[in-house]
Amino acid sequence: MNATDTITPSEAAFFGMLAKDWWDPKGSSAMLHRLNPVRLGYVRRQIDAVWDCDPRARRPLEGRRVLDLGCGAGLLSEPLARLGGHVTGIDAAPENIGVARAHAEGQGLGIDYRAGGIESLEGETFDLIVSMEVIEHVADPAGFVAGIARALAPGGLVILSTPNRTPLSRLALITVGEGLGMVPKGTHDWNKFVTPDELAALLDEVRLETIDRTGLGFDPMRGFALSAEMALDYFLTARHARAIEAPRNQVDA
């Protein structure tokens, strides 16, 4: 399989152009900075519940291999590393990877950043795979999910987020979000948005069992928050069907 089978070159080029501003909380990625605490909170809630981690533990991912798939410039990769994970971040845009590496080095974090797609991870497995707002940008969603299944270690977790394909998401993310410059124009293609049922079906095809669906809502006063309502955006957690807890991936010191 070609290493770029799931990558849409125009999408990679678009996000690569935004790389230099990725870490600016007031720049073109400002919305991602506002999203990040909610994303991290959801990830922490899932690993604590499924792996029975102590919610007070500062490094619950200690000894586990973590993949941030579509990592951008590392906004989520860095806090996952601080939670103890041995993090690999992969992104289709080489420009993003360059910015991510430089920022992580400045923070003293040893994150393994690579440019490419899920296909480039042939033979590697990870205990936790996160992919936030990525599947709606790939060329082949089914192939993308199949690659995730191959890369997931026994007992591992997959956590995805993506916009739902609803009238509300079109209004909020494209008409308002892009129209008012809250996110860069051209970021979204509503026709490529994936519903929760469609995503769960793709996961089921590769024997990944959905164990949680949680909405992402937005309130003008409170900002982003987890929600029972999934019309705008949502998180989904999955694991191998009939999964049991397995030993952690061995990571070289």
Distance, first to last CA: 32 Å
Total of domains: 1
For the residues shown, what is the average pLDDT? 87
Number of strands: 8
CATH class: Alpha Beta
Strand content: 15-25%
- The helix tally amounts to 7
The helical percent reads 25-40%
Largest beta sheet: strand ordering:
3-2-1-4-5-8-6-7
Q: What series of H and E elements makes up the topology?
A: HHEHEHEEHEHHEEE
What is the fourth-level CATH superfamily? Vaccinia Virus protein VP39
Instruction: Return the CATH architecture.
Output: 3-Layer(aba) Sandwich
Shape: globular
CATH topology: Rossmann fold
State the secondary-structure class.
Answer: alpha/beta
Explain what you see.
InterPro entries: Methyltransf_11, SAM-dependent_MTases_sf, UbiG_MeTrfase. S-adenosyl-L-methionine binds at residues 39, 70, 91, 132. The chain is an alpha/beta fold and 253 residues long. The protein has one domain: Rossmann fold (3-Layer(aba) Sandwich), CATH 3.40.50.150. The longest helix has 21 residues, at 30-50. 32% of the residues lie in helices and 23% in strands. It starts with 8 loop residues before the first helix and ends in a 13-residue tail after the last strand.
